[in-house]
C-alpha cells in the first residue's frame, strides 16, 4: 500500500488519472493477498467475522478453537492450527463466538473492544488492507445509541436549515434566549443589537 499520509509523497504528486491507476493496482494487489489467506473475513465497525474452510463433515468436537483478548487459533485437533496468531486489535472474549457452517467451515465472530476503528488485518502477521478505502454499509438512525442518534439528528436538522437559509438549532436557541431576556427587561432597547 502507498503511504498517502507522508508529506508530499509520490502519491500527492500524481495527477488524478495516475492516482486512479495506482489505486486500482493497489486494490488488485490487496485482493490477491487477501485471497491467498487460509480464510476470508469481513468487518463492520463493531465486529469482525472470519470464515475458515475445514474438511467436509467436520464437527465441533473435531476442532480446537482459542479466542483470546488478542489471540486467535483455529484448527483440527492434534494437528497444526489452520490459523494462529496475534489479533491486530483486542476483542471482547465473552461476546465473541464460533460455530460450524454446513460442516465445512468455521465462522468465528469477534466483537471489537474499540468499535470505532477499522482493522487492517485479522492477524498481525498477515497482509494489511487499506482501511481508508473501506466503504461502510449504510446504517439506520435506529441502530445508533441515544446520544449519537441525537447528535446525528441535530447535524441533519442544522444542515437542512442552512440549505434553506434558515437558522440552525444553536442560532434558534440564542434567538429564544434573547426573546426571553427582552421580555424580562422591556426597559432595554435591542433594536440596534447584532447577535453573533
Automatic annotation (TrEMBL):
Residues 10-29 have a biased composition (Basic and acidic residues). Keywords: Cytoplasm. SUPFAM superfamilies: HSP20-like chaperones. One of its GO terms (cellular component) is cytoplasm. The keyword Cytoplasm applies. Coiled coil: none annotated. It comes from the Eukaryota. One of its GO terms (molecular function) is unfolded protein binding. Residues 1-29 are annotated as: Disordered. One of its GO terms (biological process) is protein folding. It is found in: Cytoplasm. Residues 34-123 form the CS domain. Required for nuclear movement. May interact between microtubules and nuclei and/or may be involved in the generation of force used to move nuclei during interphase. This is Nuclear movement protein nudC.
